[in-house]
Amino acid sequence: MHRHAALLFFLTLFLCLAVPAAGQSIALSNLVLDNHEGRITVRFGVDIKDVDAVKAALADGQTLVLDCRATLSLKRDYAWNRSVAKAGLKSTFTSSPEGGLYEIGIPAMRHERYRGRDAALVMKEAWGDISMDLGAWSLLGRGNEYALTLDIHLLRQNVPTWVKGTLFFWDFDTVPAGKFQLDFSY
Question: Is the pLDDT of residue 66 over 90?
Fold first, then answer.
């Protein structure tokens, strides 16, 4: 009986401390995969829904990093998908020490810096139209099934490595990560 009481106590404690599942915090818009001058190009927009969490992290002096990773894979029926191409893009998001001025830097994009006083508007301008090059179009073979997977994280940049290693079970994302997949035939 004593075991059952302890089990019931820990189960109740777990349920009370469990964080309720939030809605999707990272949304994707205008996902397009096309042939641009003989290159596989993926274009999309990132919409961060929880602007308050982002502003709170920036107000605490954090530097945030939007980390986007795209993987193009050949789909297979009886084995794991085979990776054909990969690409990544990182973008930094900072706030001025006195607050009020937000800045996003994207080194790989046509505009490198986006600045403004409205965090939501700066994120929309900077991350509303992202483009990534996945390699030569000749990597794709006609008559095949493919999957494009996008992993998107908004991470805290200044977390020491020893903290990440010690608290490996802790999530250092500012908002829950998003994973998106597009299946297509060519």
Answer: yes
Residue-wise pLDDT for 9-32, tens only, equals: 333 333 333 333 445 689 999 999
Q: Tally the domains of the chain.
A: 1
Beta carbons within 10 angstroms of residue 140's beta carbon? 19
DSSP state of 112: -
Please give the Cα distance from 91 to 42 (Å, whole number).
17
In a domain, 4, yes or no: no
CATH of the domain at 137: 2.60.40
Residue 69 DSSP code: E
Its domain, for residue 43, covers 26-185
Q: What is the 3-state secondary structure (H, E, C) of 12-40?
A: HHHHHHCCCCCCCCEEEEEEEEEEECCEE
CA dihedral 34, 37, 41, 46 (to 10 degrees): -90
Instruction: Look at strands 113-116 and 145-156 and give their pairing.
Output: unpaired
User: Using CA atoms, how far apart are residues 141 and 35, in angstroms rounded to an integer?
Assistant: 13
